[in-house]
């Protein structure tokens, strides 16, 4: 334990004594006395500038130094490390929240201890490094006391994930939800909370007996269930066709499957309106050819369900394809050896082994549907859902943050309910199919009925997607899509024009700045999202510890809250000490990492559930540590989940709008904010042209991710059209 603890202790002293404690002071070590403002290291600032509250952080560092100086395997060393790390972390957080820019952050502290002569700014490099040092000293102490069987890596990983979730999920969401019982004066009232939670328009069920709209909760639940079922079935059908059939155009099918996930906001809804709206192409054709009356049927539940199914099916497919690929052929061969038919084999062997993928795909789509507000905003009509109610409560004429917070609590409860149902359905059965034994059999042929159903579901949907995106790409080359379809390049030139000047190449197009910022943010956030998500999945599937269920639910918390609420919560939480991020590129990266992390977690959980624990145990028995086991055994078997995590997180960082619409700044404008601005000004041509360029860019990036990560190699033969063709009965 001592060498690793000594490293973290040394880093803690560097952060405390050398690096600037506050943000905005640079990142270089300095020994010069600070100015009266928030500058300098904690040690120098506390001694020379009157910020005495920074000095107690030296005490746990001294205690940890004493612990590392004790003889190896000393009985008290872990306890001292645990105590010093816990005290240091608690003190750093407490003084950071208690003291703001102008002194005490809460009036009662000033009344208790008297006024402070000066305040402090947000944490900088020194504070971050010191807090990280305290965290890992504490987890090393836990491991030394036997927690997680003494595995320092696992203990540290759990501590790091919990600390990150507490800082960047629980803290900002807590800021918003704490206002659910606000009376308007800053005081909490249980009566105000109950009146908002039990409002009649939220729970109304008169639609069952009268011609009135249902309450917004029942609308949201019904839409989410229908979307979850539709996207899960479509994702499963696409995965079965791609893995278990001899379909020859599999690569094209996979491209069409993931196209909707790489579409910027509002484009799918706009395309659906131009196809099925009152003056849409399909609507007018049906009216002219078949005499079907023109109507506004697309506005309401049908339109929102259609667009959400289009938008979220790729997520289900990315989860399901790795699960279908991981099913061991030997289990199916054993069933067939015992004279089971194809249908019995599929029903009793194949389908049960796909349950983790089905459950996780449904859960993700269910929560995505609840949190989506862009599609209901455009196509909802009189069909209200919770996300739009929350949005208008925050930014509309109501201006009622308390109501928005109460609706957010209801959303959280619905997420928790879906999460509990998923866990009950999966149970505690084992779904491991990837073990250490050779398993190079050929996947079993699908029953004829299942195969026909998969083709009948996937191929028409793929054709519809192809037509829809053909129209979207075509719209970027028209003067005014739907009204004046004459061809032009002016939208692309306005967005991405290049010219030569005295100094060389000039990026004169209006969209270049937002495009470069978007690529930078996506490239930084995607690997972080995948790393944090897959590490969390490893802890959930491979480790057992107290509070694991609560830990798993906390990881889904940011996914259950609508993006608009997440954006507002980040502004409230990170616009003041101790964590000041508003207006920086860091807040965009952090928002994307923790907003998209749940999908990486669910993809990792679904894939890791298929990997037999015996592989980990063999590696550990042969002397490999946890890090080496993860790197050489688990990660190569998780390549489908890695691809899904990287693709989803990169694409969502480019296409998300709801969470970041409040976080962008003139210096850091994202592509989606620029597109929404064009849509609001009626410049649909430029918005569609920009969206088309993003679709091409993301398609190239997805291909590169697939190439770099590669395919999972588990010693199984590839099924060919000959081996999977139907044999005569």
Automatic annotation (TrEMBL):
Q: Name one Pfam family in it.
A: BPD_transp_1
What Gene3D superfamilies is this protein classified in?
MetI-like
Spans through the membrane: 50-70, 79-101, 121-143, 155-177, 221-243, 255-277, 297-324, 404-421, 452-477, 521-541, 553-572, 641-664, 684-709
Q: Does the keyword Transmembrane helix apply?
A: yes
Keyword set, alphabetical order:
Cell membrane, Membrane, Transmembrane, Transmembrane helix, Transport
PANTHER family linked to this entry: FERRIC TRANSPORT SYSTEM PERMEASE PROTEIN FBPB 1-RELATED (PTHR30183:SF7), MOLYBDENUM TRANSPORT SYSTEM PERMEASE PROTEIN MODB (PTHR30183)
Name of the protein this chain belongs to: ABC transporter permease subunit
- From which organism does this entry originate? Azospirillum melinis
């Amino acid at each position: 334990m001592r060498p690793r603890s000594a490293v973290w202790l040394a880093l803690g002293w560097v952060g405390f004594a050398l690096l600037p404690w506050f943000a905005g002071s640079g990142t270089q070590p300095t020994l010069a006395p600070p100015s009266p403002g928030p500058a300098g290291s904690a040690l120098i600032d506390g001694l020379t500038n009157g910020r005495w509250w920074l000095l107690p952080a030296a005490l746990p560092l001294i205690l940890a130094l004493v612990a590392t100086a004790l003889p190896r395997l000393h009985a008290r060393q872990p306890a001292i490390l645990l105590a010093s790390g816990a005290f240091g972390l608690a003190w750093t957080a407490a003084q950071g929240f208690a003291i703001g820019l102008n002194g005490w952050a809460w009036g009662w502290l000033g009344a208790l201890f008297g006024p402070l002569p000066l305040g402090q700014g947000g944490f900088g490099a020194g504070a971050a490094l010191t807090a990280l040092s305290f965290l890992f000293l504490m987890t090393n102490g836990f491991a030394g006391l036997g927690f997680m069987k003494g595995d320092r890596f696992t203990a540290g990983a759990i501590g790091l994930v919990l600390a990150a979730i507490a800082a960047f999920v629980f803290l900002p969401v807590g800021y918003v939800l704490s206002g659910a019982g606000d009376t308007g004066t800053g005081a909490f009232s249980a009566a105000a909370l109950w009146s908002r939670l039990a409002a009649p328009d939220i729970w109304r069920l008169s639609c069952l007996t009268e011609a009135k709209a249902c309450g917004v909760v029942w609308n949201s639940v019904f839409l989410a269930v229908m979307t979850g079922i539709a996207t899960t079935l479509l994702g499963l059908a696409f995965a079965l066709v791609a893995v278990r059939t001899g379909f020859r155009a599999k690569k094209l099918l996979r491209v069409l499957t993931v196209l909707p996930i790489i579409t910027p906001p509002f484009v799918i809804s706009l395309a659906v309106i131009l196809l099925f709206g009152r003056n849409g192409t399909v609507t007018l054709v049906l009216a002219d050819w078949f005499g079907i009356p023109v109507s506004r049927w697309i506005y309401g539940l049908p339109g929102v369900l259609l667009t959400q199914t289009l938008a979220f099916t790729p997520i289900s497919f990315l989860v399901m394809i790795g699960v279908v690929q991981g099913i061991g052929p030997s289990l199916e061969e054993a069933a067939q050896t015992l004279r089971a038919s194809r249908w019995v084999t599929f029903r009793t062997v194949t389908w049960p082994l796909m349950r983790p993928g089905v459950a996780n795909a449904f859960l993700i789509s269910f929560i995505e549907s609840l949190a989506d507000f862009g599609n209901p905003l455009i196509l909802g009509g009189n069909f209200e859902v919770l996300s739009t109610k929350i949005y208008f409560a925050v930014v509309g004429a109501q201006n009622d943050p308390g109501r928005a917070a109460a609706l957010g609590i209801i959303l959280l409860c619905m997420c928790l309910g879906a999460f509990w149902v998923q866990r009950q359905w999966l149970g505690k059965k084992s779904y491991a199919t990837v073990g250490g034994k050779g398993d190079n059999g050929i996947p079993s042929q699908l029953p004829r009925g299942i195969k026909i159903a998969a083709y009948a579901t996937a191929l028409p949907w793929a054709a519809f997607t192809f037509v829809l995106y053909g129209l979207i790409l075509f719209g970027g080359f028209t003067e005014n899509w739907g009204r004046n379809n004459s061809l032009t390049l002016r939208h692309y030139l306005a967005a991405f024009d290049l010219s030569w000047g005295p100094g060389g190449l000039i990026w004169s197009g209006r969209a270049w700045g937002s495009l470069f910022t978007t690529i930078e943010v996506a490239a930084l956030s995607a690997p972080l999202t995948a790393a944090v998500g897959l590490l969390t999945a490893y802890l959930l599937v491979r480790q057992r510890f107290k509070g694991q269920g609560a830990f798993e639910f906390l990881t889904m918390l940011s996914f259950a809250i609508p993006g608009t609420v997440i954006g507002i919560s980040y502004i409230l939480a990170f616009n003041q000490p101790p964590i000041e991020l508003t207006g920086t590129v860091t807040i965009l990266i952090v928002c994307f990492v923790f907003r998209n992390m749940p999908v990486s977690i669910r993809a990792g959980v679904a894939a890791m559930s298929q990997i037999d624990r015996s592989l980990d145990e063999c590696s550990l028995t042969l002397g490999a540590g946890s890090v080496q086991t993860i790197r050489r055994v688990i990660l190569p078997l998780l390549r489908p989940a890695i691809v899904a995590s990287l693709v989803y997180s990169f694409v969502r960082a480019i296409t998300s709008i709801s969470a970041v619409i409040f976080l962008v700044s003139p210096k850091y404008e994202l592509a989606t904010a620029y597109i929404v601005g064009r849509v609001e000004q009626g410049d649909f041509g430029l918005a569609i042209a920009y969206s088309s360029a993003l679709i091409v860019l993301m398609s190239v990036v997805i291909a590169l991710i697939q190439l770099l990560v590669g395919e999972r190699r588990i010693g199984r033969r590839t099924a060919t059209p000959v081996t999977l063709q139907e044999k005569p009965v």
